[in-house]
Amino acid sequence: MPFLPTSVAPTEVPVVAVPTSYASAPSTSLGTPQTVSLPIPQLIARQMAAYLVILNNGQSLTILGPRGLKGKAMVAEDGSYDVGLSSAQVAIQVFSDGYCGGCSAGGGAPFFPAARKDAQAYGGYEGPVLPALGPHSERFLNSGTLFYSYFTKGNRQLIGLASYNPNGPFGLGGAFYVVTFSGPQSEKGIGRYTIAHALSTLSP
Q1: Residue 100: other Cβ atoms inside 10 A
Q2: For each of the chain's 204 residues, which pLDDT tens digit applies?
Q3: Which residues, listed in sequence order, are joined to residue 158 by a DSSP beta bridge?
Q4: 193 CB contacts (<8 Å, ≥6 apart)?
């Protein structure tokens, strides 16, 4: 299920502000709404929260995940960010490179042949690529968007979304982001909503 369902009536989900550290304070102050309306089934919505991160460019990021997660976010001067949320059961990681051409190519290189090719302009890439993780599944939505999954230690399953665009917005070079959800197989259904929401809201 790579997309949020369009035939489901929107349901209110509580919003949780994520503690965030900044290289420089945000230029604008954005409030935290109590809820956000999302097209997910009510049974799923009762288990979910929208975790809110205020970025430093007048924008915000919401991450859909199970209720009760704790964590923090870091936002750098160049707009890149790294968010980690977890509980005893699951962990969510969201990373974006901040529209840096070399950073984007290096970040995307493990996932995308195009990124590995682009990385040659920045000294090349010699690290592992996705198959090196061992048995896994992958599905390309297009040449720059990949869904993947594999099992980690303790028989936990990780599902992820990676996206690479060599021509990022605002003329600032490439763009790359990756979102992962890991937990026991019993949480896989919830994780798919995390990934689907990320696909519908993040743009490289």
Answers
A1: 21
A2: 455 555 678 899 999 999 999 887 766 666 788 999 988 889 899 999 999 998 877 788 999 999 999 999 999 887 789 999 999 999 999 999 877 778 888 889 999 988 888 888 888 888 888 766 667 888 888 888 999 998 887 778 899 999 998 876 544 456 889 999 999 888 888 899 999 989 888 765
A3: 150, 182
A4: 1, 4, 40, 44, 48, 64
Alpha-helical segments (H) within the chain: 42-45, 101-108, 113-118, 188-201
Report the distance separating Cα 56 and Cα 23, nearest Å. 9
Distance CA 59, CA 49 (A): 19
**Distance (Å, rounded) from C-alpha 17 to C-alpha 52?**
5
For residues 111, 61, 158, 162, the Cα torsion angle rounded to the nearest 10 degrees is -10
